[in-house]
Amino acid sequence: MHPPKFRVGLVQMSCSADPQENLDKAVARVREAADHGAQIICLPELFRSQYFCREENARLFDLAETIPGPSTETLGRIAREKNVVLVASLFEKRA
């Protein structure tokens, strides 16, 4: 018996300084990948912002968000709607 096959979608996207704009763009790309048959969809690392992890900078701590929170709620909703698995990384706010 052969293991089940599945289709993976890898999202590439440019990110702006606006987290909501990036989340909206990611959701659109998830929809597009799912509509093309992807069952597992991987988003870029820290897709909610421009990549900032080259150095520790306290000014960027405001980009952190709670989990669960707005991004996980949005991603969970689109994953359920499209019946896909999403792989995403977020900058988690410390308790």
Globular, elongated, flat, extended or rod-shaped: what is the shape? elongated
For the biggest β-sheet, the strand order reads 1-2-3
Could you tell me the radius of gyration in angstroms? 15 Å
User: What's the number of domains?
Assistant: 1
> Based on DSSP secondary structure assignment, what is the total number of beta strands?
3
Report on the structure:
Helix 2 links the parallel strand 2 and strand 3. Helix 1 runs parallel beside helix 2 (70-82). A 3-stranded parallel β-sheet has the order 1-2-3. It has helices spanning 19-35, 70-82; strands at residues 8-10, 40-42, 85-87. With 95 residues, it is an alpha/beta fold. It has one domain (8-87).
Layout: helices, strands, pairs:
Blueprint: E1 8-10, H1 19-35, E2 40-42, H2 70-82, E3 85-87
Parallel strand pairs: 1-2, 2-3
Helix pairs in contact: 1-2
Kindly list the characteristics that best describe this protein.
three-stranded parallel β-sheet; single chain; alpha/beta; 2 helices; 95 residues; 32% helix
Q: What's a concise summary of this model?
A:
With 95 residues, the protein is an alpha/beta fold. It has helices at residues 19-35, 70-82; strands spanning 8-10, 40-42, 85-87.
